[in-house]
Amino acid sequence: MTAVEHGRAGAALAWRRAALVGLGFGAGALHLAAVGVLLMLHQRWIVIDTLSLGQATVLLLAGGAGAMAARDADARLARGALAGLCATLPLALLSLAMDAVTLQPIFIVLTPDLQAMLTLGMPPLLAAPALLLVGVAAGLLGAALRAIPALSRALLPGAIAVLIAGVFQELIQLMLQQYEGPVGEARDFVYTWEGLTQQGAVTVFVVVTLIAQLAGRAARGRVAAMEPARRRQIWAGIALAAIVILPAAAGSYIGQVLMLVGLYILMGIGLNLEVGLAGLLDLGFVAFFAVGAYSTALLTADAPNALMHLSYWAAMPISVLLAVCVGVLFGLPVLGVRGDYLAVATMGLGEIVRVIVLSDFGAPLLGGAQGVLHIPKPQIGSYTLSSPVALFYLTLVAAAIAAFIAWRLENSRLGRAWMALRDDEDVAQALGINLVRSKLLAYGLGAAFAGLAGSIFATMLSSVYPSSFQLLISINVLALIIVGGMGSLPGVVLGSVVLIGLPELLREFGEYRYLFYGAVLVVMMRLRPEGLWPSDVRQRELHAGDETAALDAGADLLPARE
Amino acid sequence: MKTPTRSRMPERMTGFRMPESMTRSRTLRRILLATTLATTALAVARPAPANAAQTLGPVTDEIGVIRIPKNAPIQIGGMWVLSGADTALGLDEKRGVELAFKTVGGKLLGHPLKLNAEDDQCNAEGGQTAATKLAANPQTVVVLGPACSSVATPGAPILWQAGIVDIGTACTAPALTAPNRGPQYAGFVRTVFSDSEQGKADATYAREGLKAATVVTVHDGSPYAQQLQQVMADNFTKLGGKVLSQEAVSPNDVDMHPLLTKIASEKPDLIYFPLFTAAAAQVLRQAKETPGLEKTVLLGGGSLASAAFIEAAGPSVVGFRIGYPDISADAMGKDYPNFVAEYKKTYNEGPISGYHANAYDGAMLAMKAIEKVAKTDSAGNLYIGKKALRDAIFDTKFEGISGPIACDANGQCAQFKPSVLEFTSADPKTYDLGKNPKKIWPK
Amino acid sequence: MSGAQLARSQPRISVGRVSPVDIVLWSLRILVLFVVFAGTIGAIVKDRYTAAQWFDFVMFGLTIGAIYAQIALGYTMVYGVLRLINFAHGDIVMCGAFAGYFVASPLDRSGFLTDHPVIGMAAILAVAVATSTGIALLTERIAYRPFRRVAGSGPLIAAIGVSFFLEQTFRGMFGSSVKSYPAPAWQRSTFEVWGFNVPRIDVLVIGLAIVFMAGLYLIVQRTKMGTAMRAVAEDAEAAALMGIDVNKVVVFTFVLGGAMAGIAGVFYAFVYKQVYFFMGFTPGIKAFGAAVLGGIGSIPGAMIGGVFLGLVESVGPSLFLDGLGIPAPYQLRDLIAFTLLIMVLIFRPNGIFGERMAKQRA
Predict the structure, then answer these.
(1) How far apart are CA B331 and CA B322, in angstroms?
(2) How much of chain A, in percent, has pLDDT values that exceed 70?
(3) For chain A, what are the domain ranges?
(4) Could you tell me if A559 lies within 8 Å of chain C, comparing CB atoms?
(5) Is B256 a member of any domain?
(6) Does a structural domain hold residue C4?
(7) I need a surface site. Which of A125, B319, B409, C182 has the fewest CB within 10 A?
(8) Closest approach of chain A CAs to the CA of C2, in angstroms?
(9) ipTM of the modeled complex
């Protein structure tokens, strides 16, 4: 085969790949249309009377396909255009199909409204080519942005800022609304009640572009000179500062959301001890959370079935202690169970706790379906911690203490024993590690943090209901530590913010919360199986894995588990 | 694997690691200091809390005034369950409110009406977050909803703390409007009846209408069903009947046969199961196949008055009865048929659940009260006093489409008239409150 | 410092002595045995149910058990080959049930299902099997294949993600309402065996389940592909070295699991008459429990485990709890199921039929 032929075959392959990438994105767009996401997004403006969120999504998908396809050196723009075309093709076909037959009796969201969005009111035979043309243009733009760094540096920051300002408009307005004066006027200039105004969008774009240009020139040299570890620390510092300051500045709603994030951080730290350090896969973690919440409720509430009427500060340590006891009791029977079997066993234990809490059998003590009401808020002197912001700081302090303890534990003898246990139980035992004690300590300490979270949860709600202690909580906590990065404390924080905080902030799209959640889990695990912020040890392990993978690439379809 | 070691030396004392950890601690310390300072500054500079006496424009109010600039919308909050299995319940109420806005042309006192509907997921933490979000918006005038009592319990106090009245549209727990409900619920009213009345009415029907001597109740662990069957059982006993047992299922159960076989062994005259759609449909369908229950009457609750239930239960729905507030033309407001027609026109389907009329009346109540207390200044800005609005809501009386609306001192605004409805057809398209199911009691 | 020093500083627990752990485990055993015996005696003393009613309990248990068993097969095969808890398997069952619904519903309305039950059922099953197999393969290709070399919990999380994604996709496309499966007259009839009434649909479901499972067993035991599957389950690397295309085996496994899920979905829907997006979750978890109960990786184990779990769920509350006078016993049905599961894991970590896997591998 000559070099020319070789090149031609390579080119054909690249064209095919561009088309496939486009069709992949197109399938995504079709899915979004079929489940109703596209229509819902279309009902939200980014820029009033100019661009809806749904339209922006289609453009982004086509542009993204263009950028993905433009990775080789030659014919970038053309391949980008092809990918853009392929990305809008499924939607165009859908539009034509909807014109030909009524699909609504089966697919309930394929409504005339969706058709109107796809066609912009034009007759379908005209609209479908128009849609494809838009796709080609977006694909071209995507490819151009990738091909010419200067162009993307000039356009992207502003565009992203407009997008963020549009998507989070409800939230930003809510934050700004408590301020009058110049802030209020700026808000009125940029936003109406439904989204960015046209002049607002232009202003945001121009301002952010300018800032990005200036700041970029100033900072590029310094940031690039820094070593990655240090850069990460600075980012962590900034993020931490934002978490601490934001509720005080942005008011109770952000406080409430961050408070939920904080509770999940607490639980995440606890579960991290069990799963991340000791390698005990636990899907029944919600049980400890429930124990903490119910103990606090029964010890403090002003309800007929309460056992005592202690103050919150007296009840909290007792709740934590009870959670530890339950954690140890929980750990005892499953000591000999390992790996995925342990996941199932613990899931069973968690469900047992939930069923008992809900049942009529336990109702005389636990309140059954009616839960426990009238739980008092904690008091410091005469000041009641009733606002979400105040409670957030309580959670923050608790999380900080928990993080400190976890950090010290990690480097302690117990922590090392846990890690040995995680890596190989039999070898750990041979090395003289007391398996029973180490495992029970992992359950007990993990439960302590969950119990603390439960205790704060109960006082936050002033009431506890059994419906708050579903299997889903255990799954959420496990997912957030894995997405964040197993065994890594900053990972837990990042995981909670992404998996708990973000959905709460985007409540208006709440109907599709779990669709996105599921998609994020799959995509995250594909792109970064080690998590967003992996611990150093873990990263090293995975990289070692990469090397062996490279060595035996021929057999790379083998299952590999520990 | 790592070898466990007793000392922590290697990581912490190795020479070359020192400088990095030192810079780290310095950076951290700096960030911490800045953070503390900023937090304190912000905490001090925060705007005053909402519920202090305030004068704005022409209005002075004990707990605060809302100023709505000229042409800006009047923002009304909403919280219902809008995701998950009970979506139809919440969506139906949201539509009721939207239709109420539509009847006044989407405008009130020259300002457009804007509904900020939040999903409360029908659980306590979802309700807390939704209520906090609505309360954080200083422009929220009043909140409509929720559908679930477990949402209202934590939600209403949060709203009232910000001086916002919450008008419950389907939350029926008796405690919410009980005389001892506590000052934190002073801002809560509801345009729906209380379970204590529904349960009593159902017990009365069972004893007097059906002449049943024995009953078995079934609930699904939801606060609604558990409470309702308890009230019903208590009243049934009081009226001289006998409660054979109080059973429970979980809402995702599909195999009700064993439970029904157990119930059949007790030979009750009546099974009372105010469950939600999926579980209720299973009980109904499987009860027809269970030997020993041929003569037993089945009675369900108001949450089943929906087309979705007919769809789920299939042919076995015909002849099935539910306890429900009286919706016949003479008991129901006279505008109800027009409302249903409008509903069908707007959403291309009949009402999908049972509480749209209550939600519609809740919205009407809010708008009437706003009209009473709102004042406009010369520049066209609108001012609403929060305490004044609360008092106006408690004072407003009118003929709603779900019946007369007039709040008592504890916020109970709906007058309850009992009735029992019977399904007449298994075709979900024929769902039409009053025809399918049609009223069979009181005659 | 060395391991030897550590060993000296921490005495190893000896197996022979009675430790606090043993005491707890023994009291647990005694407690469960007490509940079982006292409850059974109580139920016998109360004598509330007739023989026909006990027969019904068993029949209901066998029916749901047969369905659990079929779902459990999918879990057990995938786990055997990939060591992956396919958390989304219950949702694949849901996909099959939905696909079946869109065939069954028009067939029933046109009267075809009543006139030609065999052809009608075959068509419904074929569409359901095709759909669920297709979706199972898609999830394998998109979500699971990239993880073959990744150790740890990543794959489990991806599987959980797939589960949410499938549920919400179906909810978005077909709505969140509960749809009612048709019930042609021939399904509703009963016939009499030794004086007991037996619903025809139950017998059909149990019978067909046995036929399909036997077929599956033969495929795995007798065909070349089945042998390859068992080899991969035994030792994947060695199998690859012996020239077995592991990739093909995995695809084959998902085809078998998906097909069984589709069949189970249709049966489930025909017995319980409802389809909605969340319907797969609970039976999925239960069936996974059943697979573990029987010994995960073992095909007869999954069958026995499923039937056993179904029976315990159906009979248990009336036999054990009602006898003790516990209120609303059927609310505690899941408690019985999960207690059973945990007891099996504690005292027979390898399940009833399984190899010694829980303690050695995983």
Answers:
(1) 17
(2) 92
(3) 1-147, 153-215, 252-471
(4) yes
(5) yes
(6) no
(7) B409
(8) 8
(9) 0.87
